[in-house]
Amino acid sequence: MTTMYLHPRKLVDAIPELANARKVKDLLVIDREMRSVRHSEPKMCILMRHSHPKLENVTLYCILKYAAVYEEGPAESLFDIPVQPADGNEDGNGDDSQEDATSQNQNESFSRPPPRPSANPNLDANIIAQEGEQNAIPSHLRLGGNNAEDIAEVRALGFAVDDDNEPAPENVPAPSPTTPPGTTEPVNSLFQGHNQKWRSDLFVDPRNQNGCSNIGPSLPTVDKPAALSILEMFLLFFGVRLLKIIEDSTNASLPPGKVKIRKRELIRFFGMILGMATTVGFNRNEFWKTREERNKSLRCSPYDYNNFMSKSRFELILQHLSFTSRSPPTFRDKFWRIREMIEVWNENAKNVFRCSWVACLDESTSLWLNRWTCPGWIFIPRKPWSMGNEYHTMCCGESSIMFVIDLVEGKDRPKELPSLDPEKKGPTVSLLLRMCECLYSSGTVVILDSGFCVVQGIVELLKKGVYAGAQIKKRRYWPKFVKGDQMMDDMTNDSYGTTKGVQGMMGNICYFIFAQKEPDYTSMIMSTYGCLMEQGKQQSRRMKDGAKTFFRYTQCFFNHFRYRHVVDDHNNFRMMDPCIEKRWSTMIWENRVCAFVLAISEVNAWLARKHFLPHDHGGRNMTLLNFRTQLAHEMMNNPFLYEPIVNERNERIEVVGQKRKSSRIEMETDHEFYTAPAHSTKYLGNGKWILNDKQAHQRKHCTTRGCNQRVRTCCSCSLGHWLCVGCWGIHMRAVGTNCLLTKANSAS
Q1: Which ranges constitute the DSSP H helices of 74-159?
Q2: Where residue 567 falls among pLDDT bands split at 50, 70, 90?
Q3: Cis check: omega of the bond before 381, within 30 degrees of 0
Q4: Domain span at residue 241?
């Protein structure tokens, strides 16, 4: 079994042969019983023995679901686990379901005991355990990537797959009876039902004709963004109301007698998580090492959290972290614990941020690699994080700030909830209307990829005052009302870079299909705005004979290629190592959703400073890692620590702000991780660099002995002394240790 799940934890870590091994084998199962692991509620555990000399007469244990059987003992030694009789299935065959449960129990050496039933299905441990086993990924499944074999295997198991090749449901042609003679359309014609026709005189943009201008993004609740601190900018996007919900719900879930958390402590808790996400290669326990353990270790974490919060307190908050103030519904809803968090975050983003004239709608993913899949689990082979949750997200085109998120629930969405498509316009159309609701009547242009390419969708958006442009791609079928093959044939003899337009009418709404001739194909975009006027810089294409041709994009193609990547850029910033979602190791899916919200709020705050601060402001060019480091520092030392506590009688009873008293050391972290300017060769001092490198971002070897990393970074205390992120952490620890020794010598 995996070493990290074996207990007692301190005893296992004290034996190098076990602590340094990823898995422990040759464990002999002796019994099973209910035990409390890490101060949690009692769970069914497997008791084991090991042949190591130091473990003689020591009983090891782990939670049941983490144990794997390599060799089964004799039949008479198997545990006799009673099976709870079934109440009957949908067909009324209760005996069949009982036989299936009994046969399953006989085939598995370790089955879950029947937990105590609950009146609410969302709190019934028996139902949750059964769903976990049913939705578990088989141990033999190894997903290698974006290939047909993996996709077919995952689909055969009943899981959802988004392989970017399936057409939108609205674009799937419905089977129709035989068309009467004489009513078929000509083969080489456009769609006559919408009166489509080629137009060469489209030089007036309907959006500009209606008086819409290209405005920039704004923060309506902030007068001077430059006056906000890093913490204030983060709380602006994370939401004070969401923080209050987390505080109240977590206090409600704490055991009786435990000290309730307050706003200042919750902010410090999240700051400590962000601090961990600025490092790599350290597990959570290393941030609470004692002074003796740090002196004996060759490599320690750059932060010492003993002065901020005890480890037991941190684990207590982490264990009981909750994100909803609502009561569970009477029906089974796997998402009820996180629905309020996503709704409140979207509402806050709508209030504090105004999108610019252009936005981009695309998908984002949240990683979940646990064998026990999470609600809404999906396999997305084309994404860097191919397994986990998928979100539909929307970002501002000018600032890349994300302001709408929508979790894809798939087949796990309860049928008791209201339909997401109440007007029966189609799932893609209803999704577009739901995502763009905050943009109604604004004249904003939304850039869409081929997955949202539905004519009715962009037409319905125009009825709400939102313009859209979607790339056209043949996903088994051409989009409905688009004669793609005929349009490509009509442009066969056109020169490369030529753009033509088709105008169509759906009802009384006009839409366009723009086609641009490329060397090997024809690129097409459907939109409700735009014209054939050229924009942007001159583009070039290499022909098959080696010659170059030059052209300029027309309006829709220019906007599409300029803004189509803003969601991907936001995702790249969020997933860039060291990553919050990876560093926050958790087995609780709700915590992973919180990590996703925490990460996008952090990236939003960083992007807001880069966009809204003056060009001469020092914080404008701060890297994301430096921003996270300073944000973690401000959260752990947040100004709310100095606010007095007032009781119900309006009496001041406490003034805090002092660090947690401890005799153990605290790491000083005022050294910034600095990136050298472009073309930097050597640092001369006094802020001057020699800029002789041919390449703008030419990398140098890390100056630490034995490190082969090639970087362009260093510490602000020793510019020009090249350091990778790992060696920078070691450097910070050394500086802190020297500071501690200096203080000790001066005190003596």
Answers
A1: 94-107, 125-134, 148-156
A2: very high
A3: no
A4: 228-327+579-655
